[in-house]
Amino acid sequence: MEKLANPSRRRLFRGEVKIPKALRLPWAINEAGFIDKCTQCYKCIDACETKIISQDKEGYPIIDFEKGECTFCTQCHEVCDQPLFFDRQSDAEYRFKPWKFELSITGQCLAKNNVYCQSCLDVCEPAAIEFSYERDGNISSIPQPRLTFDDCTQCGACITSCPQSAIVLEMN
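Request: output the structure for the sequence above.
Response:
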């Protein structure tokens, strides 16, 4: 399979000057290295057990949490012939979070708008989302969500489950 044309040139001709931040595969090397080394063979797309890997405009693999969550099965790593990932055995970086982003809950959240909803809590296995009846120092009749970033595995399950798309990624 042949790699697509120079992505930066394609963006320039489309009038897109800024490089969009893309959510690549878990524990992928930096963006420039990923673009340089990825051959666009799409083995990772076929191997993904939850089918959350798709293609961006340039044909490179990206994660789409709207389709589901990442189980960190590492099938995408195992089928890839290129050095696109941190070495799980020796790299200290691999021991950290799979992506450099944080989640946030926007004002679209039903609970923040006094509608009972805890769909994100129900799917969060590491319990990184907590609900309490405190809101801005006052007692609320509807439990309010709060993220605990240290407990978050960044699996994306909460993004998929939110009926208002109120949980968003903030890329670092």
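The mean pLDDT is 87.
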